[in-house]
Design goal:
This protein is mainly alpha-helical and about 170 residues long. It has 2 domains: about 70 residues, Rna Polymerase Sigma Factor, Chain: A; about 80 residues, Winged helix-like DNA-binding domain superfamily/Winged helix DNA-binding domain (Arc Repressor Mutant, subunit A), CATH 1.10.10.10. It has 7 helices and no strands. Helix 1 packs across helix 3. The chain is globular and about 50 Å long.
Amino acid sequence: MSDSFRKLAQAHRDRVFTYALYSLGRREEAEDVTQDVLVKLWQNRDGIDPERVGAWVMRVTRNAVIDVARRRRTRRAVIAEEVDVDIAANYVAAGADPERETAAKEFREDLEVALRTLGEPYRTIVVMREIQQLSYGEISGAMDMPLNTVKVYIHRARRMLRDALKEKYQRDVI
């Protein structure tokens, strides 16, 4: 295996695994998807435009996740309950204060519930943007959607999350 491919695989491995884990909720399946995607990356490494490799990897990952979900015979993939979402860090500062830590954990759990209620493609786009920190362009390429459509979906998804959390958290949390 060449050093250039090793660097390429390392650059995308965590992003693929995280997306698969959030989408499927099972570590073993996320590891399998990650391995499958990296094998496909190896097989297609010469035919992928270097500037579009991130979008290609995420599109292949999304398709692999859909295939796994279909094999489960479910209508849609679900986000794992036991996955620790770190979006709450934007709301509650981490620290040694037990009250803050409890509040952060509670917010994280509420956010996970709200995320699970989002339909597709909203959930996928929010996970890619807010958790994986992908750019709008990368999401557009991965989802094979126009850039403006991605922006509209992100705006709508954030509003849905805000509305879902508004009752419990009376201030603007997102």
